[in-house]
Amino acid sequence: MNRTDLVSKFAETIGIEKASAIVDDAMADLGIGGETEIDGTDAQDICDIIQHDNEGYIALVASELRVQLAAQERFDALLGNIPNPAVVVEFEQREPYVKSINEAFADSFGYDRTDAVGTELRTLLAPPGADSEVIRTDWWEQTGQSEQEVRRMTASGEVRTYLFRSTIVTRDSSQLEGYGIYTDITERKRREQQLKHQNERLDEFVSIVSHDLRNPLNVASGRTHLLLDDIEDPAVQEGLQEVASAHERMAQILDDTLTLARQGRVVGETASVSIETVAADAWQQVETEDAALTIETDATIEADAERLQQLFENLYRNAIEHAGAECTVVVSAPEGHEQSGFSIADDGPGIPPDDRELVFEHGYSTNSDGTGFGLSIVQSIAEAHGWSVTVSESEMGGTRFDIRW
Questions:
Q1: DSSP structure class, residue 270
Q2: Strands, E assignment, 309-350
Q3: Would you list the DSSP string of 276-319?
Q4: Which among 393, 288, 291, 296 has a CA at the least distance from the CA of 342?
Q5: pLDDT tens digit string along 133-164?
Q6: Reduced to 3 states, what is the DSSP secondary structure of residue 84?
Q7: Cα–Cα distance for residue pair 114/133, rounded to 1 Å
Q8: In whole angstroms, what is the distance from residue 267 CA to residue 196 CA?
Q9: CB atoms < 10 A from the CB of 328, how many?
Q10: Histidine kinase domain spans which residues (predicted)?
């Protein structure tokens, strides 16, 4: 701001000659030259003097202008401290022109304030070959506050992706002013795209494995069982039974691998489901022998019911496999409101502290007949929901798995 800017503020209400006189007198009192650039603090001091030396309408105008200048100074300080690129625009025929930018905007887009202020925003940021009109309409597509993903070009010609948040407000004299903040999400979008491609390749690999391995495995298993029915030699039958058992193990490993690849990493549509209902349904799908289930919660959670049931089934199988056919399994939820989640505990021998982190690794198993994928699937399903899963000692001396969010 300079003398002319300040005079024009007063001239709107008291005329140019009177405004010039009172501003010059106040600047002289402060020892400020007429051509000196005036910062926000100087401008407020000038208004203080004008208010003090005058009465009536002039004093009122000086007071109101000082309040406006103080508010603008606070806003400028806030704008300067926003860590993301931020821009203030004024509109001419709905076209956004840069009024102010913060340091983060200058650093991110490569324009200093001198180059940016007064320039059409789309002249600065429109990517090559893109319809620059979109930069104008981005401000007007939605009423009130807007948030959208946009592509913008920096001064060096690099096109990056931003999350653009904007709002338009009415300032003095019905002048519209827009405020926009750009959050650079270029690297995040690249990672998302890489992950998408990886998942597509994984799905393709899973389809190949499912088709090319399962079909010959089914043929081998079928032929083995036919031979078991036809051959009476005990020694040969014993050997064939070992082959049949190996086929069954291979099939289980294949099923668990496909489950982990296809279903463990994602969840479908979620809904409010009863832990008690899902836990009970899962128990019916597992060979529980003489084991007993106790459910001590009637809580509901937001989850993919099918994936949640699979999580329970795998934990039940793990409990029966390690705690024995007559074990007791307890499903409960933490008391009070300090934590959200549920637990599955058993009264078996438990897991040594040094092994508790290993149990979630692919292929880890202390049972020679186990595939080592069951708990890995549990962890994948939990993480796909945004939950965590940990293992500790249960109150019954066995193992407890805590799922929390």
A1: -
A2: 328-332, 341-346
A3: HHHHHHHHHTS--TT-EEEE----EEEE-HHHHHHHHHHHHHHH
A4: 296
A5: 777 777 876 555 668 889 999 999 999 999 99
A6: coil
A7: 24
A8: 15
A9: 17
A10: 208-405
